[in-house]
């Protein structure tokens, strides 16, 4: 959309930015939670940064806020602009929240497999959901809808890595290091994240270099995703299939994914992500989504490797969102059976890791 210049638009944009910033000012930082799996004598500490405590319940709240500020400051969003996004759910929930705050129409283009609970949260925030059968068409359909309405396609997959200030300004990396300052291993050996847009890994990877930390960045990726295939082969055009773990994994390598800032990638079977999600609930009482399970699987593997090497240190990963929005899917035994996902064999691996601090070869 070409914004009409003039003082009215400028006043509206100023007021909109002030509302977004006021929302940030009302929100406390998310908690950093130690996960006590084994005695402290093992020398390796594991932490979860609980992003489910954001107003919209997920890590994507940070991204949505940054994308709205980016669009407002670039002149792409003005009074009355229809906001359109391609999303698997959580980003759309957060963007619907900010769109309603600014009095703007919002349309989410999502795969038809998106959980019913996520669709309900978007609609509750005043957004409209446009569901597509072929997940690979969400980009084109979102662009088409934005053009048809004279609106703005947010395009999280392109703009995620540039909308966030990776040098600081209370981004997630800066927050992690501030909260780790008084721990016995204040500089993490590893930070573990998944990749949906690639924006979080880009922000953290850049920040680690900018601040000259020795921390390594590991990206975990679900079955069939293009990110892992691309990183391991060096082929930026590598393709995969749509992920069954909502929020992470993509059938193509997104523009916001920066492989050069990633030190290691771990491929995680879908059923292993479910097992780790269940393991977290059993051992901490916290009900998280499946992408948190993917993170935890990778973090536990790295922790066991550190113990095996006789090294001490800390590992930080993310609790991406809460489990309530997955009650009818990943937390449903009937749904898992229908999807052909059996977490039991992977649950045995996790129990063994927790009891012995060793990872099976």
Question: Overview of this structure, please?
Answer:
The protein is of the alpha/beta class and 361 residues long. It is built from 13 helices and 10 strands. The chain has helices at residues 7-26, 60-73, 90-102, 116-124, 138-149, 156-163, 172-180, 199-210, 226-233, 270-284, 290-308, 333-339, 344-356; strands at residues 32-34, 44-50, 83-86, 106-111, 128-132, 152-153, 190-194, 216-222, 264-268, 313-319. The strands form 2 sheets. It has a 6-stranded mixed sheet, sandwiched between helices. A 4-stranded parallel sheet has the order 5-4-3-6, with helices on both faces. The model has no long low-confidence stretch (mean pLDDT 94).
